[in-house]
Design a protein that fits this description.
Length: 230
């Protein structure tokens, strides 16, 4: 009998979350920094130095933050699995009853639930409890290194876009030019991420552009107010 192969969008959720967060933060934070410095009447060279420094610092911060955060999740998952492994070794009957109860709660009658629990326990008891009791699956497993590299890389790519716009724009037009191009980049990012994740595109585009515009407006206001690079 031929197998029916089906790919679901949740398979992308681990790397997609880190990638979108990194790229979005790269665009918004670097564009906001550039616009704020430009509003303070800084020179073109100073604007670029500030932008590059923001790119490097932001990428390293994203990598470290994602690694620490996802490592904590991974540690928790490992601890839960170790505990479950110990419980299976010490009291297999109670664990079987617990798994049966889970399937009954999901709609199976008790005899069928018991049969399913026994079959899955025989095949791989720990995997069955990890998936159905703890909610840990291969798709959702925390991967700290992957998340760190994805966040740092996409932050750098996102940050490079407003920097490129700043580099190509005359100093007296940097605020306007970078703001406009960054909103375009954010709209494209929001649309692409929504498409990959199967979410409403218009809603995603509106969300990222609104918050990006708000961030740039705030830093531009600070730059104008204080008249210094921020």
């Amino acid at each position: 009998m031929p197998r029916h192969t089906e790919r679901h969008r949740t398979e992308h959720i681990g790397w997609l979350r880190a990638a979108v967060l990194g790229a979005n933060d790269g665009i918004v934070s670097t564009a906001s920094l550039v616009v704020g410095v430009a509003a303070a009447d800084a020179t073109h060279a100073n604007i670029m130095v500030a932008g590059v420094a923001g790119l490097v610092a932001g990428a390293m911060s994203m990598a470290a933050g994602e690694y620490v955060s996802v490592s904590s999740q991974s540690d928790t998952e490992t601890a839960d699995l170790d505990r479950e492994r110990k419980e299976l070794a010490e009291d297999a009957d109670s664990e079987l009853a617990e798994l049966t109860g889970i399937y009954v709660a999901r709609g199976l009658d008790e005899s069928l639930a018991r049969q399913v629990a026994e079959q899955l326990t025989k095949h791989d008891a720990l995997a069955a409890h990890a998936r159905d009791e703890l909610g840990i699956s291969e798709t959702m497993t925390a991967r700290p290194v992957q998340a760190a590299f994805a966040s740092a890389g996409t932050f750098a790519i996102g940050a490079a876009l407003p920097l490129l716009a700043a580099f190509l724009t005359p100093v007296n037009l940097i605020g306007t030019g970078v703001s406009f191009m960054s909103l375009v980049f954010l709209a494209l990012l929001g649309g692409a991420s929504a498409y990959v994740g199967g979410a409403p595109i218009a809603k995603a585009v509106a969300r990222v552009t609104f918050w990006g515009a708000l961030a740039m407006a705030a830093t531009a206001g600070i730059g104008k107010l204080f008249g210094v690079a921020v």
